[in-house]
Amino acid sequence: MKANQAELVISAVAEEQYPTMDLPEIAMAGRSNVGKSSFINTLLNRKNLARTSSKPGKTRTLNFYLINEILMLVDVPGYGYAKVSKTERAAWGKMIETYLGERDQLCGVTLILDVRHAPSGEDVRMYQYLKHFELPVVIIATKADKVTKNKRPKHVKQIKETLGLHKEDSVVLFSSETGQGKEEAWGAINRLRAK
Ligand code: GDP
Fold first, then answer.
1. Which spans are transmembrane here (predicted)?
2. Has the ipTM of the complex gone over 0.90?
3. Counting atoms of ligand 1 from 1, which one is nearest the CA of 38?
Protein backbone atom coordinates (compact mmCIF):
# COMPACT_ATOMS: atom_id res chain seq x y z
CA MET A 1 0.00 0.00 0.00
CA LYS A 2 1.14 3.53 -0.62
CA ALA A 3 0.18 6.10 1.98
CA ASN A 4 -0.82 8.97 -0.28
CA GLN A 5 -2.48 10.72 2.57
CA ALA A 6 -1.31 10.60 6.16
CA GLU A 7 -2.59 13.07 8.66
CA LEU A 8 -2.29 13.34 12.44
CA VAL A 9 -5.93 13.48 13.55
CA ILE A 10 -5.34 13.83 17.28
CA SER A 11 -2.81 13.32 20.05
CA ALA A 12 -5.06 11.91 22.72
CA VAL A 13 -4.44 11.67 26.45
CA ALA A 14 -7.95 10.54 27.36
CA GLU A 15 -10.54 8.20 25.92
CA GLU A 16 -12.98 11.04 25.24
CA GLN A 17 -10.50 12.36 22.68
CA TYR A 18 -10.25 9.19 20.60
CA PRO A 19 -11.54 9.77 17.07
CA THR A 20 -15.19 8.92 16.58
CA MET A 21 -14.66 7.71 12.98
CA ASP A 22 -15.37 4.00 12.76
CA LEU A 23 -12.23 2.96 10.90
CA PRO A 24 -10.00 -0.06 11.52
CA GLU A 25 -7.06 0.81 13.77
CA ILE A 26 -3.61 -0.75 13.97
CA ALA A 27 -1.54 0.14 17.01
CA MET A 28 2.26 0.52 16.93
CA ALA A 29 3.98 -0.36 20.19
CA GLY A 30 7.57 -0.75 21.29
CA ARG A 31 10.25 0.13 23.76
CA SER A 32 11.54 3.72 23.73
CA ASN A 33 14.32 4.23 21.23
CA VAL A 34 13.65 0.96 19.43
CA GLY A 35 12.97 2.76 16.14
CA LYS A 36 9.18 3.05 16.27
CA SER A 37 8.97 6.61 14.93
CA SER A 38 11.40 5.74 12.14
CA PHE A 39 9.26 2.71 11.29
CA ILE A 40 6.12 4.84 11.06
CA ASN A 41 7.85 7.56 9.03
CA THR A 42 9.27 4.96 6.62
CA LEU A 43 5.87 3.31 6.15
CA LEU A 44 4.26 6.65 5.47
CA ASN A 45 7.08 8.03 3.30
CA ARG A 46 7.47 10.97 5.62
CA LYS A 47 10.66 12.32 7.12
CA ASN A 48 9.24 13.69 10.30
CA LEU A 49 5.56 12.96 10.82
CA ALA A 50 6.04 10.73 13.83
CA ARG A 51 8.58 12.66 15.85
CA THR A 52 11.62 10.56 16.57
CA SER A 53 12.59 10.01 20.18
CA SER A 54 9.79 11.48 22.25
CA LYS A 55 11.53 12.15 25.51
CA PRO A 56 9.84 11.84 28.90
CA GLY A 57 8.83 15.13 30.37
CA LYS A 58 6.80 15.77 27.25
CA THR A 59 3.19 14.70 27.45
CA ARG A 60 2.93 11.15 26.23
CA THR A 61 -0.01 10.72 23.95
CA LEU A 62 -1.70 8.22 21.70
CA ASN A 63 -1.23 9.65 18.22
CA PHE A 64 -3.90 8.72 15.67
CA TYR A 65 -2.80 8.95 12.04
CA LEU A 66 -5.47 8.75 9.36
CA ILE A 67 -4.16 6.93 6.27
CA ASN A 68 -5.81 7.33 2.86
CA GLU A 69 -9.15 7.91 4.64
CA ILE A 70 -9.46 4.15 5.23
CA LEU A 71 -7.23 3.19 8.11
CA MET A 72 -5.90 4.59 11.37
CA LEU A 73 -2.37 3.92 12.60
CA VAL A 74 -2.06 4.56 16.32
CA ASP A 75 1.35 5.40 17.74
CA VAL A 76 1.48 4.15 21.33
CA PRO A 77 4.06 5.91 23.55
CA GLY A 78 7.19 3.82 24.08
CA TYR A 79 7.69 1.83 27.27
CA GLY A 80 10.75 1.02 29.31
CA TYR A 81 12.36 4.42 29.59
CA ALA A 82 14.28 4.26 32.88
CA LYS A 83 13.93 7.91 33.83
CA VAL A 84 10.15 7.99 33.82
CA SER A 85 8.56 8.73 37.20
CA LYS A 86 6.23 6.30 38.96
CA THR A 87 3.28 8.62 38.40
CA GLU A 88 4.03 8.89 34.71
CA ARG A 89 4.44 5.14 34.40
CA ALA A 90 1.09 4.57 36.09
CA ALA A 91 -0.61 7.07 33.77
CA TRP A 92 0.95 5.29 30.79
CA GLY A 93 -0.31 1.94 32.08
CA LYS A 94 -3.83 3.21 32.48
CA MET A 95 -3.89 4.79 29.03
CA ILE A 96 -2.61 1.59 27.40
CA GLU A 97 -5.05 -0.58 29.28
CA THR A 98 -8.01 1.54 28.25
CA TYR A 99 -6.92 1.69 24.64
CA LEU A 100 -5.63 -1.85 24.04
CA GLY A 101 -8.21 -3.49 26.25
CA GLU A 102 -11.35 -1.67 25.23
CA ARG A 103 -11.05 -0.13 21.81
CA ASP A 104 -13.51 -1.85 19.45
CA GLN A 105 -11.87 -0.50 16.29
CA LEU A 106 -8.50 -2.03 17.19
CA CYS A 107 -7.74 -4.89 14.76
CA GLY A 108 -4.17 -5.71 15.70
CA VAL A 109 -0.81 -4.48 16.86
CA THR A 110 2.65 -4.18 15.37
CA LEU A 111 5.19 -4.69 18.13
CA ILE A 112 8.53 -3.17 17.20
CA LEU A 113 11.70 -4.86 18.44
CA ASP A 114 15.40 -4.33 17.77
CA VAL A 115 16.50 -7.38 15.77
CA ARG A 116 19.95 -7.27 17.36
CA HIS A 117 18.78 -8.08 20.88
CA ALA A 118 16.68 -10.75 22.51
CA PRO A 119 13.35 -9.28 23.63
CA SER A 120 13.54 -7.78 27.13
CA GLY A 121 11.27 -8.75 30.02
CA GLU A 122 9.15 -5.72 29.21
CA ASP A 123 8.85 -6.77 25.56
CA VAL A 124 7.73 -10.23 26.65
CA ARG A 125 5.21 -8.75 29.08
CA MET A 126 3.85 -6.47 26.35
CA TYR A 127 3.46 -9.42 23.99
CA GLN A 128 1.69 -11.47 26.65
CA TYR A 129 -0.52 -8.50 27.44
CA LEU A 130 -1.55 -8.20 23.78
CA LYS A 131 -2.30 -11.91 23.61
CA HIS A 132 -4.32 -11.63 26.83
CA PHE A 133 -6.56 -9.20 24.93
CA GLU A 134 -6.59 -11.68 22.02
CA LEU A 135 -5.06 -9.16 19.65
CA PRO A 136 -3.23 -10.41 16.54
CA VAL A 137 0.38 -9.24 16.56
CA VAL A 138 2.99 -8.66 13.88
CA ILE A 139 6.54 -8.36 15.19
CA ILE A 140 8.57 -5.75 13.34
CA ALA A 141 12.22 -6.70 13.85
CA THR A 142 13.81 -3.39 12.93
CA LYS A 143 17.40 -2.20 12.42
CA ALA A 144 17.95 -5.28 10.22
CA ASP A 145 20.71 -3.34 8.45
CA LYS A 146 22.76 -3.69 11.64
CA VAL A 147 22.91 -7.48 11.43
CA THR A 148 24.63 -9.35 8.61
CA LYS A 149 22.30 -11.20 6.31
CA ASN A 150 23.42 -14.70 7.28
CA LYS A 151 22.94 -13.97 11.00
CA ARG A 152 19.39 -12.62 10.66
CA PRO A 153 17.57 -16.00 10.80
CA LYS A 154 19.27 -16.79 14.10
CA HIS A 155 18.12 -13.47 15.55
CA VAL A 156 14.55 -14.02 14.32
CA LYS A 157 14.55 -17.47 15.90
CA GLN A 158 15.69 -16.00 19.21
CA ILE A 159 12.92 -13.41 19.09
CA LYS A 160 10.29 -16.08 18.41
CA GLU A 161 11.56 -18.32 21.20
CA THR A 162 11.94 -15.59 23.81
CA LEU A 163 8.46 -14.22 23.16
CA GLY A 164 6.87 -17.65 22.84
CA LEU A 165 5.40 -16.35 19.59
CA HIS A 166 2.00 -17.81 18.79
CA LYS A 167 1.79 -19.55 15.42
CA GLU A 168 -0.76 -17.10 14.04
CA ASP A 169 1.66 -14.20 14.63
CA SER A 170 4.54 -13.36 12.30
CA VAL A 171 7.88 -11.56 12.21
CA VAL A 172 8.85 -9.02 9.55
CA LEU A 173 12.50 -8.05 9.16
CA PHE A 174 12.63 -4.31 8.70
CA SER A 175 15.07 -1.45 8.24
CA SER A 176 14.30 2.24 8.18
CA GLU A 177 17.80 2.78 6.78
CA THR A 178 17.35 0.65 3.66
CA GLY A 179 13.55 0.36 3.44
CA GLN A 180 13.82 -3.42 3.70
CA GLY A 181 10.53 -5.03 4.72
CA LYS A 182 8.34 -2.05 3.91
CA GLU A 183 6.08 -3.88 1.45
CA GLU A 184 5.94 -6.89 3.72
CA ALA A 185 4.99 -4.71 6.69
CA TRP A 186 2.16 -3.11 4.70
CA GLY A 187 1.02 -6.58 3.64
CA ALA A 188 0.90 -7.67 7.27
CA ILE A 189 -0.94 -4.50 8.31
CA ASN A 190 -3.51 -5.02 5.59
CA ARG A 191 -4.08 -8.58 6.73
CA LEU A 192 -4.61 -7.36 10.31
CA ARG A 193 -7.05 -4.79 9.01
CA ALA A 194 -9.02 -7.43 7.10
CA LYS A 195 -9.37 -9.72 10.13
P1 GDP B 1 11.65 5.54 18.90
O2 GDP B 1 12.04 6.16 20.20
O3 GDP B 1 11.26 4.11 19.07
O4 GDP B 1 10.61 6.30 18.14
O5 GDP B 1 12.98 5.45 18.01
P6 GDP B 1 13.49 6.37 16.80
O7 GDP B 1 12.71 6.10 15.57
O8 GDP B 1 13.62 7.76 17.28
O9 GDP B 1 14.94 5.72 16.56
C10 GDP B 1 15.91 5.67 17.59
C11 GDP B 1 17.29 5.69 16.96
O12 GDP B 1 17.50 4.53 16.16
C13 GDP B 1 17.51 6.87 16.01
O14 GDP B 1 18.83 7.31 16.16
C15 GDP B 1 17.28 6.28 14.63
O16 GDP B 1 18.00 6.95 13.61
C17 GDP B 1 17.81 4.86 14.82
N18 GDP B 1 17.11 3.91 13.92
C19 GDP B 1 15.78 3.70 13.84
N20 GDP B 1 15.49 2.74 12.95
C21 GDP B 1 16.67 2.32 12.43
C22 GDP B 1 17.03 1.33 11.44
O23 GDP B 1 16.20 0.63 10.84
N24 GDP B 1 18.37 1.17 11.19
C25 GDP B 1 19.32 1.92 11.83
N26 GDP B 1 20.60 1.67 11.54
N27 GDP B 1 19.02 2.85 12.76
C28 GDP B 1 17.71 3.07 13.05
1. none
2. yes
3. 7
